[in-house]
Design a protein that fits this description.
By secondary structure, the chain is an alpha/beta fold. It is built from 16 helices and 11 strands. It is globular, with a radius of gyration of 21 Å. The two termini are about 40 Å apart. About 5% of the residues have low confidence.
Length: about 325
Amino acid sequence: MYDMLLQKLLILRTPKVGPATYNKLLTQYGDVLSVVDALHLDSSFIDSVKREMDDAYNLGIEYICDDDSRYPAGLLGVKNHPIIITARGNTDTLKKHSVSIVGTRHATAYGMNFLSDLAYDFANHNFAVTSGLAMGADTAAHIGALRADGNMQTIAVVAGGVDYIWPLENESLYYEILNRGVIISEMPVGMKPNAQNFVQRNHWVAALSDILILGEADEKSGSMTTVRFALDYKKRVFAVPGHPSDPRSIGPNSLIKNGRATLCMSVKDFFDDEKQKSKNNCKYENDILDKIGTIPVSESVLANLVEKSVAEIKTDLVVLELQGLIRKQDGGYVLN
């Protein structure tokens, strides 16, 4: 196992080799060992990768390959997803349903309190709250989730190595997440983040969850790129409205106005009992329920039965699970 992990890392740590190039090389040469041989790597480079692995071991950091059962399902469905991610903390957190909550680093106190309360309610409904560990909205989301009981409450996706604390103002939050959640990255252990890494981090924040909620965000906020990625991945996007004269409201207000995001007014938009009862009358969701019994049925089979794509039924499956009508078991869904 160590040898295979080392071989994969040798390829991925080679300059200018990312997931897309990795996959092309694997197709070209047939297997990982053949790719490594073809790269003609020198001993100093190999030693540097081994040192990274030693550092990871000493810090309790785990490498999770995309063929590992712990690898997040949300990432797995994305083209050119990371071949290997590093994780520090409780990796079982990655198995939970998650909701991504994002917004500007310059959030108002009101905006942060709203997102914190929203994250708390999602965590109490057994969701892991995913965000990017930045100041402002991200901080509020993580803190809100950690207010709930349990030790699998939040996922922080970082732009540098999982051992590199950034921003420094969130050092205490970083360690609290280690104790009661997980921190993940596709970057090498010890790496300092750069601007491009933050864009890539936003990709994975969007991909990890079926639902993304945007708080305050101006037009050029990095969280708006996260929203665009989520829409590209066919995720369901919600936006919290704000005062029209506040620049931090332009992002969510415009998304709602253009019909690209659903209005988010409170946690009742997700967990209100009466709303869920009315949703039970939806023919489409009843069609899904009709196809589920006591034997687990996979998402791909369900999608085929109701003549929809897997992406189209994911959110509906989450809703039905929240209603307590179905549950996930052995890779499929069964009736409760």
